[in-house]
Amino acid sequence: MSGGPEPISAEGLRVAQEELARLRAERDRAAGTLRGEDDAVGDRADEADELQRADEVARLDDRIAEVQGRLAEAAVAGAPSTTVVGVGSTVTVRFGDGEEEVVEVTELAELGERTLVTWDSPLGKAIIGCHAGETVAYDTPAGAASATVLAIGE
Question: Which stretches within 33-134 are classed as H helix?
């Protein structure tokens, strides 16, 4: 990645917003199970359960902050480039076997309707910085491969 604010595609934005809503709801449920300051903790098992729930709330808070930060970064970065492949780009590629596919370059390949390619995968590393018409060679666990960038953008 460039080290600066990275754009995010419309699909990536939708997925991040859905994750944020899900995390917030999960955090609210988990926080609702915590005892207040005036509530007495019972035995050690109760105390251990309370600590475990507090750890879960802290984990959710960390992930919420991470997703919010990514969304803020994307807002600063603006729309993905349509002239050079970068994080957030939607790219039409033709592989060495002639098969064409539309992929989205993203940070994480978790959810989404398109084929997501992480920026640090063999294909992602090969096409980052490419322009339409460029052919790249890259190594995969199955051996050498190539791809031609046919188009960039929605």
Answer: 44-77, 122-127
